[in-house]
Write a structure and sequence with these properties.
By secondary structure, the chain is α/β, with parallel strands linked by helices. Helix content is 39%, strand content 21%. The protein is built from 17 helices and 17 strands. The strands form 2 sheets. Strands 1, 2, 3, 4, 5, 14, 15, 16 and 17 form a 9-stranded mixed beta sheet that branches. Helix 3 crosses helix 16 and helix 12 crosses helix 15. The longest helix is centred in the C-terminal third of the chain and has 19 residues. The radius of gyration is 21 Å and the shape is globular.
Length: 460
Amino acid sequence: MKIYTDALVVTMDGEHRVIQRGAVCIDGKYILGVDSTEALVSRWPDAETIDSWNMIILPGFINAHTHLFQVLFRGIGSDFPLSEWLSRIIWPLSSRLGKEECYLGALLASVEMLQCGVTTFVDSHYITIDKYCYDGIARAIEEAGIRGVIGRSTVDTSLAPPEFREEVEEAVDEATRVIETYHNTADGRITVRVEPLNEALASERMVLAMRDLSKRCGVGFSMHTAETHQRVEDCRRMYGLSTIEWLWDMGILGPDVLLAHCVWLTRKEIELLRSTQTKVAHNPVANQYLADGVAPVKEMLDRGVTVAICTDGASSNNDQNILQALKSAILLQRVSVLDASALSASRALKMITIDAAKAIGMESSIGSIEPGKLADLIFLDLNVPQFVPAVSAISNIAFTSPANSVARVVVNGRTVFENGKHFHLDEKQIVKDCNDRVMEIIGKVKLKKAYIFDSFWNYC
């Protein structure tokens, strides 16, 4: 039993409690108590106490949408819109990814997220040439000590390169294998969702089959939707309905469904999301990076739709810093509606904690600091320049993106990151291994130099 004492505890509970000189008591992987330091030390006098003076304790951040493998392709082809980015960069490079490469990418992404205070992520992995790439991802989650949701994604239409396509029956069988092998493993840290990738690359038959599988196995269902205006128009042309209307018409929407992006929505579609309790994963940096558009987040929130703020993959962001995504989301909503109160720092912080937990169906176990929940905690050091003056901690968290302030990360009651270092992983070796493997891939694929080196610069 441990008590972290004398901290500013931002609980993110239903009462929005912020406890000054607060403390959090954990036993094993669970939170036992949250109260003043005096109260908890008096209640459990024999517990080990860990001084957390001048620190903020928060529930671990939740990144509800990313693509782990994309850290391997960070910064390559950074000036393309979505369709060209996929065809010129992602598909060619990803064709060389196997189990080992996916393991390395997942390990690097996990370390990067832990450094930024992320304790839980939802991966979307649609590179299925090597069917056992998911085994590599699971291995990385296990070793990193992070909490990860493996998104078993799939594509099958002619718009995807042939080598990435799967037959519906094959995709269902392989997704079933991943669920049976990894769901609720690693002491509960690994879970699985299923995902037909998007409205363009997954057929109606594939979407229905994967939704049926999610219901039969009791796992979540994810999908990229309405990311670009072109995607929505293509959906109308193919099915006579916009993306959200099409999904509703098939009976896909529901409380266990998480839709990434949702940039191009009508008011009717927002109401369909609300009425079905469908959740949204908002990716503000990626939507700007690829020039997708601005998601109507304020309107979704005003209507009662649960929205999580996410990073998306590093290939359309360049990092996995959830705090940068948080800041970007706030500012993007404000400038898009010319209203400085459109999205507050406090409201946005919920979108990477308790609301993100709701978005992935885990609000009963993570997302806030409350007795009985899992001990996923992060400690921010107030002794960094970005927190001076220490007057409005929440505002500083949101607007200074202080990843350098993350002093300790606890997942499932176990400290996995402290004082700038992972407890047992060799970060330098991971970086070297990833760099070496990526250079091999680039050499084999023979990408145009213009995709790698900006022609603005004279490399000599």
